[in-house]
Structures
1.
Amino acid sequence: MAHQVLASPSMKVRVMPPMLRGFLWAGIAFLLTNSLVASIRPDVGHPFVNEVSITIGWVAALTGWLLGVGAYEGVVLPLFGVTPRIGQATDWRRYFAFATDHKVVGIQYLASSAAAFILAGSIAMAMRIELASPTIYFFHYSDQYLAAVGVHGTIMMFAVATVALVGGMGNYMVPLMIGAKNTVFPRLSGLGHWLIPAGVLTVAMSPLLGYWTTGWRGYEPLGSQDPSGIIFYYLGVAAMALSSTIVSLNMVTTIVFNRAPGLTWPRLPMYVWGVLTVSILNLIWLPEIQMTFILELLDRLVPLNLFNAAGQPLAELELFWLFGHPEVYIIVVPGFALWNEIIPVMAQKSLFGRSWAVIGLIFVMMLSGMVWAHHMFTNMRNSEILPFAFFTEMISIPTGFGYMAAIGTLWQSRYRLTTPGLLVLMSMFNFLLGGISGVYLADPPVNLQVHDTMFIVAHFHYTIIGGMIFTWIAATYYWLPKISGRLYSEFWGKFLSIWIFIAFNTAFSTMFLVGLEGMNRWVPAYPPYLHPLNLVISLAAWALGTGFVLHAVHIVWAWRKGPPAPDNPWNGRTLEWLTSSPPPPNNFAEVPIIDESFYVYGDAVKPAARNWDRLKPS
Amino acid sequence: MDLVIFGVVWIILSVLAEWGFNHIRANTMYYLISNEGTIAHHAFNFLTTVLTPIFLFVIWYLIFAAIRFHAKSPDAKPSPRQSTKNGLFTTVWITGAIVVNVLFWLHPTAADMEQIFASQLPSKNRHDLIVDVTARQWEWIFSYPQYHLTQTVNAAGQDELVIPVHRKVEFRLRSYDPFHTYDIEAGVIHSFWIPAFGLKEDVIPGETRYEYIVATHTASYYTNPEVRVQCAEVCGPGHPWMEAPLKIVTARQFKAWIRHQQLLEHVVST
Ligand code: HEM
Ligand SMILES: [Cu+2]
Ligand SMILES: [Cu+2]
């Protein structure tokens, strides 16, 4: 740990930059292991880099990467009782190495997620260039386009949507919001982050091994006949899912054991409820999907014939969606929670129907495991359809509770329409369209028409971009003063938010129409009658991509150069606002003692923590 | 006051929207010409009719709140009104949500599924036209066992599906590759979709599946491209082009077409 260290890199000890060392060790480990496996593999004449050697070599490379980036000093040496020669940096360098401070880890996750978003977003831009014309002209072959779809979807899901609001914002904010000084498993958590860049790079490099065509669901038996690139999809997902599992383990444990005195369950902040419920979902379902992908990998390498006509192709679909549906709530539940975190602060008004909002999160969590087969109405016996349609329709009831609380809070409030305040309303607008289109999808006869068409693609982008990405941006503006100690520009914040709102809705509402008009998914070419609408989508999608990049530029600018922010610019009541901006290494000068609700406003309310005036470092 | 303004505008918006919707309800799902497509289309319109006021309630509320409730100055003053409960609102919201969702499950979902089950009862399927549909990478192959036709094609040599209007068709769906050189069981999942019919069914290697449909109009791919067979489940690089033209013809035209195909395949001679 930091205090036992003899020297730190900022002092005059020459050390290699940890990420560089990680790359180097990964490369060496891969080369050695790959050669070893290739040389002992029995069949003669196989290539030097083959599917088996690359799988085992990848595991070695991942280990080398983790050790090189700092696990060697941070985890391995202390495990053997050796005090490392170098410790964690305290300057900017700490963001580029293994770290144990939950705030550093949170920022690492946020940065990795943002980078993954830009990467996978650029791939989406390439896809939209292709779809601006009915014939294939931008990609050379159809399989390149399909690999692009797969890489885009996989990175977006496992490195952005699942990560940004849990591993990122969650790691940073949850300990602060519950008055903890650190998380329960700081080292594990520090290690976990570095699985994300490894996983993203693995998936991004998958086309080098051959253009795989299954998309992010890896349907079998197509997967087992695809080129080897799909191996990097299995492995990359394994790394990223492991990272989120670690985050969830750490979050659940921290929330259960590290709450400040007086922070009882009924007082738990909304966002913490959100992170808790998704973390439980993650702990249940991520191991399930990892196991499934390991089976698929073995099915391919051995081969086992689990999922082809000799086995059971549908088993892969069932196993995938068993995870796949909870995944969509994993994405959006922190978003729901954040709406009701930000709205009361912006309105300076007590949260309406708080217990209903929490019950909503919990019921969504529980029901989400009972609806997976609505992704497979085209694969079911008629008798199986009814119960799944039932649960799917019922899940909109608890989902609505979040809206009910937000609407009640907004009523006759004095709502400060700041950038985060505006983005929350926009996100509620967008998610409503996503949710309403979901009601149509839950009805099997309608579903059988629009399933596997661009209607579905529009639906899930409405829920994911509309519900999660918009809220992520809102949360970033909301907490930017806390994290960076600086303010952003309200003008640019709002201008860019309106920009992405218009571009997003133009692109994706038109996508509903092309779906209804008969455009299927996973196609780089389509019948010419669909061309005009697709052109509209492509142009708007490009405007949207540009808007996202400009938001990123603005946020980075504010982070580095924005005007200094007061400690509590919104007059929020949750604990993170009671410490300095940015918070010191151990968060609070003393442990907060809670004896008021965080969600009650009015003229006579007292701060939530009894010792609120002593929490800030002097 | 706020309540009155909000409510009145909401009602006006809902009425206008329903009125507007009535003008486009015939085309909301573009072009559907089958018995099951009609069911889907009715369900779609029913859902829209019920959802429109609900949808507008929230959308209009968000806009209303942004206009009417936004603070004129950025400083942190508590809202004048503070409340955390409103029994009436909560009760109406929650009961409303339960009622609407149970309604949707009963109608359209359960009621429509009942009709779809009924349309597929075996006893009613005696004189159906049987079409064997084989999905391979990447081609749809149609054979008509009742007429001893193994692969029907059009003048350009493309696989072609032709069915008579108003007659029940039983599609038998299989995924394998009859032309594979050594492993005809090597198949992947495809999805048999005719956009103009309004439903699709996945085709799974190792399984035989049945789909029953009655076309309600004559139509042709050459006049409306939604009248086509399209693979809807990704099945490899050839997936985008895994489509086949479809024609729905009268009983007489169908007979003539069958005869022509039989000549081509030498099932009969002139
Ligand atoms: C930046 C704007 C975006 C655009 C223009 C865009 C566009 C697209 C397109 C054209 C497809 C292919 C659809 C198909 O043929 O099946 C797609 C698929 C997908 N996208 Fe996006 N996307 C965007 C952002 C996102 C985000 C933010 C996420 C999630 C965080 C996401 C998740 C997915 C997923 C999961 C798929 C399915 C991939 C598959 O079928 O395997 N996308 N997107
Ligand atoms: Cu689902
Ligand atoms: Cu296909």
2.
Amino acid sequence: MTMTLDSKIPDGPISDKWENHKFSMKLVNPNNKRKFNVLVVGTGLGGAAAAASLAELGYNVDVFTYHDSPRRAHSIAAQGGINAAKNYHGDGDSIFRLFYDTVKGGDFRSREANVHRLAEVSVDIIDQATAQGVPFAREYGGLLDNRSFGGAQVSRTFYARGQTGQQLLLGAYSSLMRQVGLGTVKLHTKIEMLDVVVKDGRAVGIVTRDLVNGEIRSWSGHAVVLATGGYSNVYYLSTNAMYCNATAAWRAHRRGAAFANPCYTQIHPTCIPQSDEFQSKLTLMSESLRNDGRIWVPKNPDDTRRARDIPESERDYYLERIYPSFGNLAPRDVSSRAAKRAVDAGNGVGPLKNGVYLDFADAISRLGHDKVEERYSNLFEMYERITDENPYETPMRIYPAPHYTMGGLWVDYNLMTTVPGLYAIGEANFSDHGANRLGASALMQGLADGYFVLPYTIGDYLAGWLNTPVVPTDDPAFAAVEDETKERVAGFLASRGTRTVDDFHRQLGRLVWDYCGMSRDESGLDKAISEIPALYEEFKSDVKVLGTGDSLNQTLEKAGRVDDFFQLATLMCVDARHREESCGGHFREEYQTEDGEALRDDENYAYVAAWEWTGDISNPVLHKEDLEFENVKLATRSYK
Amino acid sequence: MRVTLQVWRQANTDARGEFKTYQVDDIKEDMSFLEMLDVLNERLTIQGEEPITFDSDCREGICGTCGVMVNGQAHGPEAATATCQLHMRSFQDGDTITVEPWRAGAFPVLKDLMVDRAAFDEIIASGGFISVPTGSAPDANLIPVPKSVAEAAMDAAACIGCAACVAACPNSAANLFTAAKVAQLNMLPQGQPERWDRVLNMVETMESYFGSCTNHGECEKACPKSISIDFIAIMNRDYVKAKFKNRRLVSQQG
Ligand SMILES: Cc1cc2nc3c(=O)[nH]c(=O)nc-3n(C[C@H](O)[C@H](O)[C@H](O)COP(=O)(O)OP(=O)(O)OC[C@H]3O[C@@H](n4cnc5c(N)ncnc54)[C@H](O)[C@@H]3O)c2cc1C
Ligand code: FES
């Protein structure tokens, strides 16, 4: 085994680690920065922030996105808000408390040092965004407003109406575009990265496909940064945008970057259920609805009456019944699993019997129509637009959906993967959320990585390559990867099979959802580990991709992404199979308490599982990074 | 339900396009308009005809990626609704629906229904920002911003950059898009230092790509976020002032 996991966690007390590290890292002198070329893939919160900040420091930056504009990255869709330990409300918040909540929320499967740094820089993010003109919500005195969010007992979530992600991304995008205008960043839109080029053990560039004319070409840089988002779309149906995919991370993995904790995925409890089998995207409804809505299903699975006509005695308010103290506010994972059980038992509601009711009738009689409208009108309107049902009159139907992936490329404290010179930031890495992410913490992490961590840590690596020119793109290392990429693209076009890419993706998604979704067990995972590779073989020989490779071809793009999802899905199941405990988003039926809560095994599983690619999709090699908890005591999460 | 589509097909920017007719049977009212196109595309693929190219991503009306002319209306018949939020229940069984790309000189068709909107990025790069290098910002509560100002800035900032405003405008003007960003930043205290340069640079870049505004107001009607044309008035006012200020500065130096 050649791979070693060196987390490079600095010495010293937790609160001094980052300061000390910043001081001890090598620096690149301002005049030398322009001699370095950094390739940034992705323009979401992570990528846009990193590209802008690196250019401001003086580096030459090339930034890539498959979108037509950097502003379209999936970060734009985040609604709720962003956490920061500002303690503007004097309610006892602090960096340590945010750190503590995040480690605990992650069910003790994250790295303490990274999380503490995240909490430290959270405050700078709010300053930065405000200075950029991000119109955060304000109080009458003109100061910034906060709301509270799941998993915290303080008010530390900053927000911009229901569009926080949009406004933060547009802020980062504006800084990025300023640099584009100044010529320090070269922007490449509608360009998809399809591989990483590694020479002499370090990342030296990437290979891309131009989505408009199909050109496959190489780019060289002193370092490569992947800010390419998460992989929830492996499930086919998720709250992620249609184009979100894992190709960049997966191709990096195949070139030597370890993939950490792929089985840690988050299912969001309040999404609108699928309306038909052709639906391609699920919509999230803010979790805040659970503050006033009551969740129930009819007791009789064959009940065909309208919700309003079902008498109280024939309804099962199952969350209130099973979790009397938390009731409808049971945590994300617990309430998601309870909904699945109800639907699996045949008690689901709606035309496809694939949802549960979220009922506001009591809230309306208790608070009045106007109060409910004031609190939720925009959500009710969004719901009605999609379903054509009026939540004031008939209960909403909701169901859990894949939403966020905690797993990702393994990175050290400097955010470098196991391939020197290759970095991963934002949702693409595994770093800060352990086995479960708290609400409003992904935006924080993406911007922390992009604005305040990577721009410093990358210098430590680059300093060692001063006056070394980039590897030219006519080097055989580039030619080899370009050839492989061309062959791969041509392969999809050549197969001339009978089934569409989406058809395969739907079937794959179903398998991953059934066996590696909200709850998992050994026999299901074994089944998935044999069925997914079999379906993958079918995909390779029977997929039908029309058109050509040298033109805009959306089916061809999708074929490559689904091909990578097949491989990643297998790894997710292998990881889930090996982790014989339940923690956060990873729930193994075999490991639960009497109350149905996740049962961790800290003795045997308090480690990061980092997988090495071997060429055989079902047989990766496991490397372990042991996790040490020196500042937060290991404890069982409890909702009693 | 069943609809007949007349869809603009164009192989690439330089190719000549034409309408093609497709019958789409067996679709459900609850499908979104783009899901209906997804279904058609799968059927076309099975039949051996290349699927229709169109852009979309979030499918919840926030990313601004989608956008086509539906029966001659940008984003279709529903007010304040992006194409991805349009549902088949807005149409009647048996309807014929015409689907075309945005039409504007600054937005070349890339293929079928997909256009290139890079000109919008150019406008932002010319001034749609506040120059604040990372790490140099003061504490966020140092400058209080009146709630009403923050709310008005947010109203403008809600623009999703889809370009429906340009597509709907008889002159292909981009004033609503540009004004939304100018107004957001020029209203906020943080935006004051660059206020006059911002409006000059952005308006001039806009004019190099797009037509002139003659106050038709079609943009506001087509906007999926109901961005108000009042912001255009703010931009125009600032533009005139900026011209005047600059002249004065020039004459002082002169
Ligand atoms: C509906 C929804 C609501 C959410 N709400 C919240 C919330 O309220 N608070 C919160 O904290 N988090 C929230 N999240 C999570 C959060 O939005 C994301 O985790 C975060 O925005 C990810 O940012 P990112 O920069 O890592 O990636 P993304 O924003 O996904 O950006 C990825 C970028 O990479 C590019 N890219 C990817 N692959 C390639 C390739 N191969 N070649 C070229 N370019 C590529 C894309 O074009 C894009 O620019 C929400 C998520 C969803 C789905
Ligand atoms: S697809 Fe994002 S706005 Fe329509």
